[in-house]
């Protein structure tokens, strides 16, 4: 039996095309997915990104699905949140072919049940992996059919119905699509809005010739920052490869923390639904729950990862959720993440007042943060214990292990140290009152990790 543990991740399937993923294997994944969801639905909706391998792999997956007697609705080129829209609006399980921000040689599959409900290790992915490893059973009945459907206009209309920009002042926005799927969705979503879009790298190109489509890496927003300053734009927006995440820079070209965006959008959602619950993961700024509470909302803290966020949103009936990785989740979007909807909220807030974005977002940025700092280590557990022992011996320190190690220090500073699920890395996030305090705490923790 093949061992698929290296490519079946916590939330998706992902690997190097030609080495770990090929059409035959993907066909088996399609058949196994069909077996999983056959009791629930007669059809599966499939979309794919602009990577060279995506059309053939998505077609192979469709063959696997139809081989088990289920039908396929193909929406072709799509962003991941466009696939979630299709899954939600058509009430079908879905499969999205993308490796998000990973380099060109990778591809992968994100799966969901009807209504964009996520399929992760604990909700079907492990079962799919086992089925493929053991051999997919044959099906003697009639094969399913494949039909094509264009949902881009419906996706755009749905988002524009959720955020009204008709009263906005005219805005000039630079959008860096990173040669990813934002180049496909932005022109339709922004058509007719009082927004002048200055496009960057809208050409769909899975080789990513300009920069990696990962806007959380500062090196990948340098071009956007320069263009915003050059054209005198009101803001800049960068999307990752499958356009489910967005990253914002202000009129000065300065990055706006995803925690500040989470707080800003939360306040707007609470204005529509007073007293609502807002989900935030444990590495977002502590300013997020403070602001949510001040606006009458109920903040709920969760582990990192979209399956945890979505599960907690379902459990609590939350209206919105945000992660510091720039994933934003909306009850009104089937609890799925959509960077495009978050971007529209930011632009609507900006267009409703006359001040610059830097002034608007300053109210939501209360503390200094390090951003994620990765360290390669041989023994993650031993290093985590060394940090826990060093800080746990101090007076007034509070420690919890909801996700990795979160250490709260007297005076308000805190840090989280988490092991990577897929690499020999420890990920450190630090927040404190000012940059000097952040730098001091970072140096202290890294000295323990890297010694």
From TrEMBL:
A Gene Ontology biological process term: carbohydrate metabolic process
Presence of keyword Cytoplasm: no
Domain Alpha-D-phosphohexomutase alpha/beta/alpha per the UniProt entry, residue ranges: 7-134, 155-253, 261-367
Record domain Alpha-D-phosphohexomutase C-terminal: where: 372-447
Requisite cofactors: Mg(2+)
Pfam families recorded: PGM_PMM_I (PF02878), PGM_PMM_II (PF02879), PGM_PMM_III (PF02880), PGM_PMM_IV (PF00408)
UniProt keywords, alphabetically: Isomerase, Magnesium, Metal-binding, Phosphoprotein
Protein's UniProt keywords contain Magnesium: yes
Recorded GO MF terms: intramolecular phosphotransferase activity; metal ion binding
InterPro entries: A-D-PHexomutase_a/b/a-I, A-D-PHexomutase_a/b/a-I/II/III, A-D-PHexomutase_a/b/a-II, A-D-PHexomutase_a/b/a-III, A-D-PHexomutase_C, A-D-PHexomutase_C_sf, Alpha-D-phosphohexomutase_SF
NCBIfam families assigned: PRK09542.1
Family label: Belongs to the phosphohexose mutase family.
Protein name: Phosphomannomutase/phosphoglucomutase
Protein source organism: Amycolatopsis balhimycina DSM 5908
Lineage, highest ranks first: Bacteria, Bacillati, Actinomycetota, Actinomycetes, Pseudonocardiales
């Amino acid at each position: 039996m093949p061992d698929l543990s290296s490519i079946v991740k916590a939330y998706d399937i992902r690997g190097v095309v030609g080495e770990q993923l090929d059409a035959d294997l993907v066909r088996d994944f399609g058949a196994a997915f069909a077996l999983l969801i056959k009791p629930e639905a007669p059809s599966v909706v499939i979309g794919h990104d602009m990577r060279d391998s995506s059309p053939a792999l998505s077609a192979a997956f469709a063959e696997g699905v139809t081989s088990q007697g289920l039908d396929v609705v193909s929406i072709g080129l799509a962003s991941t949140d466009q696939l979630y829209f299709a899954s939600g609006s058509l009430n079908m399980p879905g499969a999205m072919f993308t490796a998000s921000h990973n380099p060109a040689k990778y591809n992968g599959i994100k799966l969901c049940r009807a209504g964009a409900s996520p399929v992760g290790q604990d909700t079907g992915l492990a079962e799919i992996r086992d089925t493929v490893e053991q051999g997919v059973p044959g099906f003697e009945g009639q094969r399913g059919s494949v039909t094509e459907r264009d949902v881009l206009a419906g996706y755009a209309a749905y988002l524009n119905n959720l955020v009204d920009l008709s009263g906005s002042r005219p805005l000039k926005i630079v959008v860096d699509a990173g040669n990813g799927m934002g180049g496909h969705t932005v022109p339709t979503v922004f058509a007719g809005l009082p927004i002048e879009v200055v496009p960057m790298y809208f050409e769909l190109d899975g080789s990513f010739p300009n920069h990696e489509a990962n806007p959380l890496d500062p090196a990948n927003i340098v071009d956007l920052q320069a263009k915003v300053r050059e054209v005198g734009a009101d803001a800049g927006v960068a999307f990752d490869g499958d356009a489910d995440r967005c990253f914002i820079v202000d009129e000065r070209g300065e990055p706006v923390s995803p925690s500040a965006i989470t707080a800003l959008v939360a306040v707007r959602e609470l204005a529509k639904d007073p007293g609502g619950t807002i989900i935030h993961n444990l590495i977002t700024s502590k300013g997020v729950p403070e602001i949510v509470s001040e606006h009458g909302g109920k903040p709920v803290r969760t582990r990192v990862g979209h399956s945890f966020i979505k599960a907690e949103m379902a459990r609590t009936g939350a209206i919105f959720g945000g992660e510091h990785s720039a994933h934003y989740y909306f009850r009104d979007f089937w609890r799925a993440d959509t960077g495009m909807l978050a971007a529209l909220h930011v632009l609507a807030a900006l267009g409703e007042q006359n001040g610059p974005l830097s002034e608007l977002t300053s109210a939501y940025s209360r503390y200094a943060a390090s951003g994620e700092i990765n360290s390669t280590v041989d023994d993650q557990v031993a290093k985590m214990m060394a940090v826990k022992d060093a800080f746990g011996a101090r007076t007034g320190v509070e420690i919890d292990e909801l996700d990795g190690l979160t250490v709260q220090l007297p005076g308000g500073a805190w840090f989280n140290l988490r092991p990577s699920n897929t690499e020999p890395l420890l990920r450190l996030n630090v927040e404190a009152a000012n940059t000097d305090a952040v730098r001091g705490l970072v140096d202290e923790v890294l000295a323990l990790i890297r010694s």
